[in-house]
Design a protein that fits this description.
Blueprint (H helix, E strand, L loop, with lengths): L2 H39 L2 H6 L5 H8 L2 H21 L8 H18 L1 H12 L9 H23 L9 H17 L1 H8 L6 H19 L13
Helix pairs in contact: 1-4, 1-6, 3-4, 4-7, 5-7, 5-8, 5-10, 7-8, 8-10
């Protein structure tokens, strides 16, 4: 084999890795730009300047600014879903697994304010960009499946009450973790409390866990209307 052929084959093997690395770099830069300025305010030129690529290269990989924005959202949703999948909750008792899921969800939101901002931006746009994303639909269906499996196990073992809708439970967990990040600035201005301060964050984390676990207690449904409606 000639050196030229060997180099060509080596380059061919590296090319997919280089493409993925380039796409990853662009998405990382675009995540910061979109989270900071929203879809309307973000500029592709600025995203290119944050990376070692060019504006035409960005359009080559993602087609348009909106295509890049959708890819950023897919990556953002995929990040938290990857963390959930890695927990191996099926190996833990139901209450311990639920506690772990709430804790990790809380920690992820706290550590990724850019993720919270991106979700807020997409809600301003009425979810137009994620509505047609099969990747986002599939990844988010996975967390509902995780919750459903946990609820079934917990009900079977007598530690969770019956009839809990996993989508409503996901809403509850997400709300407890999301609001304190999305509204931390207005909350601080109005109440003079830094929600990210370690002592407050620890108390909020424990409150989120206790709220979910108490809601799921077998006797918690007494006097509460149907949670599946």
């Amino acid at each position: 084999m000639s050196d030229r052929v060997a180099r060509a084959r080596t380059a061919a093997r590296r090319r997919p890795r280089d493409v993925e690395r380039t796409r990853g770099d662009i998405i990382a830069a675009a995540t910061a730009e979109f989270a900071e300025k929203g879809l309307s305010g973000a500029r592709v030129d600025e995203i290119a300047a944050r990376t070692r690529t060019t504006k035409p290269a960005i359009y080559y990989h993602f087609g348009s600014k909106e295509g890049l924005y959708t890819a950023v959202l897919e990556a953002a949703y995929g990040g938290i879903r990857d963390v959930e999948q890695a927990l191996r909750l099926e190996e833990l008792p139901p209450r311990e697994a639920m506690r772990r899921l709430v804790e990790v969800t809380f920690d992820y939101h706290a550590a990724h304010p850019e993720w919270v901002r991106l979700v807020s931006v997409e809600n301003i746009h009425e979810a137009r960009h994620i509505a047609g994303s099969a990747a986002i639909a599939e990844r988010n269906a996975a967390v509902i499946a995780i919750l459903q499996a946990l609820l079934v196990r917990g009900e079977r073992e007598g530690v969770f009450r019956a009839g809990v809708d996993p989508v409503n439970l996901h809403l509850m967990i997400s709300s407890l973790c999301f609001y304190r990040v999305s509204n931390r600035h207005t909350w601080g201005a109005i109440f003079g409390r830094d929600l990210a301060a370690p002592e407050h964050a620890a108390a909020q984390r424990q409150m989120a866990v206790e709220a979910v676990l108490r809601y799921l207690q077998p006797d918690a449904g007494q006097g509460i209307g149907s949670c599946g409606s």
